[in-house]
Amino acid sequence: MQTVVQKWGNSLGLRIPSLWAKDNNVRSGSKIEVIVEKGKITIFPQKKSLDDMLAMVTPENIHSEVSTGNAVGKEEW
């Protein structure tokens, strides 16, 4: 996959190919992790924190209680 470095203000920028962005759920404004190591740049979609994931739970998308079966030891429910 190739892309072109372009001037962006006083900095340089890379365009992220749309296929990679779609496959990795990256949109305009998404945070990403950039790791520079031994002359290489690796880009990862930033992992969501537990707080970020819980903020996405709404009354419309929350699932009901899940039964895990009967107790098999001395569990108390």
TrEMBL record:
Transmembrane segments: none annotated. GO terms for molecular function: DNA binding; toxin sequestering activity. InterPro entries: Antitox_PemI-like (IPR039052), SpoVT-AbrB_dom (IPR007159), SpoVT-AbrB_sf (IPR037914). Pfam families: MazE_antitoxin (PF04014). Residues 6-51 form the SpoVT-AbrB domain. Coiled coil: none annotated. PANTHER family: ANTITOXIN CHPS-RELATED. This is Antitoxin MazE. It comes from Treponema berlinense. The lineage of its organism: Bacteria, Pseudomonadati, Spirochaetota, Spirochaetia, Spirochaetales.
